[in-house]
Amino acid sequence: MRAAVPCRACLSGEDLDWLGGGRSVSLALDLPTTVEVVPGETTEVAAADDWPAQVWTFLRGRLPGLTPRPPAVRVRSQAPPASGLSSSTALIVALFRAFAEAGSPPGERVPEGSIVQWAYEFEFARFNGGGMDHLAVAEGGALLLDGRERGLPRVRERLEFPDDWRVVVVDSGTRKDTRDHIRTVRAQLAAGDPDLAAYRAEADRASAAAWAALRGRDHEALGAAMARAHAAMRDFQGMSTPLLEELRSLALRAAGLPLKVSGAGGGGSLVGVCRAADAPGVVARLAEALRGPHPGARVIPARAAPGSRSRRADVRI
């Protein structure tokens, strides 16, 4: 039994999914996290950061008949950890899918909507964040989301990412801290911080521009909109770092590729979009430029994960 879930890049609108009153643009990336249930083996319910054990405990309160101890699992991920690409949410959604399948009677399946809702509730209780990531990795494709202060955001529109485009991920090699970031932004919200208000307005406009570029299949306009979203993150919310800015400048000089930090910032990964035909050259030039001054960074070429559930990787037995 196996569940494979893509990660996600945020093209614009970090935090707007839970601040409310703004739009975000997410894109699922085919860098999956895979959870495989090991038949006949169980694990102890132990540490608080043991996600398989904690997800199993959560499900025991919703699915009758589950054993006290969760089945053993093997986990693999193609996405770098703590990099702003929601690999942790991908893991949690994959665990919910695999465990719900393992604990359901033969011929019955927990609806996908319940899986996404439960995964959101599970993470919200721990991090107090939003639901963009859960929808993004579960739905696939590109999503335009309307934020809500509590609960999953509303999916306003869905699009398939153009087949002749590629996403270039630059992993900075530095980790981000989502928990501290969310606490800081919630304090800003409570205090009526003007910088946060300015960020929300500018990020919303950048999201509108990014979605228009996706609908028009204009990757240069998308790059400009993502750069605008990054500038709002950096200038109003301090979500960039000197290293990330240096990597952005290097990418523009070496490959003409505009990059945007994905996720809460303070580290993690940057993402850019180029034509598929140009991707090998862009990746090679970036890797060569990084080799000397930034040996801890790496370039990861990626495809978008499809949005159709009939084509998306899902639970398989």
TrEMBL record:
Transmembrane segments: none annotated. Coiled coil: none annotated. GO terms for molecular function: ATP binding; mevalonate kinase activity. Pathway: Isoprenoid biosynthesis; isopentenyl diphosphate biosynthesis via mevalonate pathway; isopentenyl diphosphate from (R)-mevalonate: step 1/3. Residues 213-290 form the GHMP kinase C-terminal domain. Keywords: ATP-binding, Cytoplasm, Kinase, Lipid biosynthesis, Lipid metabolism, Magnesium, Nucleotide-binding, Transferase. This is Galactokinase. Gene3D superfamilies: 3.30.230.10, GHMP kinase, C-terminal domain (3.30.70.890). The keyword ATP-binding applies. The lineage of its organism: Bacteria, Bacillati, Actinomycetota, Actinomycetes, Kitasatosporales. Residues 72-141 form the GHMP kinase N-terminal domain.
